[in-house]
């Protein structure tokens, strides 16, 4: 494919993404499509750790602290990977995924909210993949594309990450996103994920059991809670009445120092991306899940995950929204220190 055709193709894709996002903003008040990386972020990495964290544009940043290599690896939306020795200066981006054009994802799927998990000597890439060529539903004028969570595998954190098990993990007739990993008290591995609001207008957070080697899923999904359970999210409905926001994003499981099971998740308070927390009364994924009354991070921070620095300090990785010089919304990674020693998570925002 020649250079002119590549440029034209890129412009067409960007126009489609912007049109869909604008329509979603007009109908719901929030954008549903995270930005994909700019073309200059696909440049060949220099191998130098010369990029400050705040200079990187990335939605849904997730960081693996890999003790084996003594390196931090950051993934997120867009399918790229950065690495750092100190969390301040980063090397990248690297493309680390490979796809089979015959799979449901296609040869070049959109990639959202990728996160890495190192388990039993293998590296697993939990992410949301969208095949924009396949449409699965139309609800209230929104055409819904084939989008689902899947797990890829590699032998080292730099990849390449490839599909290795069942062809699908979640039902093909539903849009799902933001899958993450948790091993519950029964010793079984689970994927915890969101049922996207676009189809039912009341987003969900659900679980499904994973096979012991993460190569597929077992049984059917089970709803843990719904967007309508939130006491803090806000939007105005079609009649202008204030109500809960329909979006569920970015679940992440953790235990406090007292053994309490918590879940971070994100929605919106009008136009501010906002993050809350829920705690399980049973201490298991089955809940019931009790929502904290107020958000736990400042407005405009969300879709977080937790990791431990090599010195033992717990950290929260989030992104915030800002406008660039051309007036476009960009997402910027940010780190907060976290205290998990008590009965509740405490985010150190100062």
Summarize the structure in words.
This protein has helices at 3-28, 197-200, and strands at 51-52, 62-66, 71-75, 80-84, 89-95, 110-119, 122-139, 142-154, 162-163, 176-183, 189-195, 204-210, 217-226, 235-236, 242-243, 249-255, 261-269, 272-280, 289-291, 301-308, 314-323, 329-339, 346-348. A five-stranded antiparallel beta sheet has the order 1-5-4-3-2, with no helix packed on it. A four-stranded antiparallel beta sheet has the order 6-7-8-9. The chain starts with a helix and ends with a strand. By secondary structure, the chain is mainly β. The longest helix is centred in the first third of the chain and has 26 residues, at 3-28. It is globular and about 55 Å long. Mean pLDDT is 90; it is low at 1-32 and 37-43.
Task: Tell me the strand percentage band.
Answer: over 45%
Task: Report the total helices.
Answer: 2
Q: What's the main sheet like? A: 5 strands, antiparallel
User: Cα distance, first to last residue?
Assistant: 50 Å
Radius of gyration: 19 Å
Helix-residue proportion: under 10%
Record field, number of beta strands = 23
Structural class: mainly beta
Order of helices and strands: HEEEEEEEEEEEHEEEEEEEEEEEE
Low-confidence stretches: 1-32, 37-43
| Overall pLDDT level | 90
The quaternary state of the protein chains shown equals single chain
Largest sheet strand order = 1-5-4-3-2
Shape: globular
